[in-house]
Amino acid sequence: MTPWEAFETLDLRVGLVVRAEANAKARKPSIKLWIDFGSLGVKQSSAQLVALYPPDDLVGRQVVAAVNLGERNIAGFVSEVLTLGLPDAEGNVVLLAAEREVPLGGRVF
Fold first, then answer.
1. Scanning 10, 34, 36, 55, which has the fewest C-beta atoms within 10 Å of its C-beta?
2. Can you give the chain as a three-state secondary structure string?
């Protein structure tokens, strides 16, 4: 598989956080997210974002996520997508997002 083919296997989409709450059962502090991906529906994600994002601040925010990596059970919560971020200088996760508002479910290319 070429590097380009490998990249094309990833399905990265834009979604809107419609609900967020702390995951009190997680070993590492994390937030449970419900993300609307338009025609793909609402998917769940567990993300370690607590250092920079209170749950209430995430609702209404567009995020980028990998939607085709399968499910993982994280502290009793089924995480269906991987919400993407980058580390800041202190190692805290900064969400990866579109520069402007875009249609939900839009594919990253």
1. 10
2. CCHHHHHHHCCEEEEEEEEEEECCCCCCCCEEEEEECHHHCEEEEEECCCCCCCHHHHCCCEEEEECCCCCEEECCEEECCEECEEECCCCCEEECCCCCCCCCCCECC
